[in-house]
Amino acid sequence: MSDIDGVVKFGKKAKGRAERIKVLQGKKVTRGEAIWANCYDCMGGYCDVVRDCERESCSLYQFHPYKGVKRG
Fold first, then answer.
1. Strand blocks (E) in the chain
2. Residue 36's domain spans which residues?
3. Could you read off the pLDDT of 18-68 as tens digits, one per residue?
4. How far apart are CA 68 and CA 51, in angstroms?
5. 70 in a domain, yes or no?
6. What angle do CA 3, 5, 7 make, to 5 degrees?
7. pTM score, two decimals?
8. In this structure, are residues 49 and 15 in contact, taking their beta carbons and an 8 Å threshold?
9. Which of 1, 11, 52, 58 has its CA 20 to 30 A from that of 36?
10. How many domains does the chain have?
11. How far apart are CA 61 and CA 63, in angstroms?
């Protein structure tokens, strides 16, 4: 099974999924799309996108749109 097939078959339908598929297909993406794709991949398909991943050591963390948002 290819990485694309895995995302399509098992990946949650969340922000970053479409962007991750574009990256895996070798399509050109914007910086923002690349960030979303990376976060989606890093978080294993994002179980809940509207929260802080709390991975402050990530080089893209400064761009995370939900940093500081705690899941309650």
1. none
2. 3-63
3. 999 999 999 999 999 998 888 888 888 765 556 778 888 988 888 877 777
4. 8
5. no
6. 70
7. 0.75
8. yes
9. 1
10. 1
11. 5
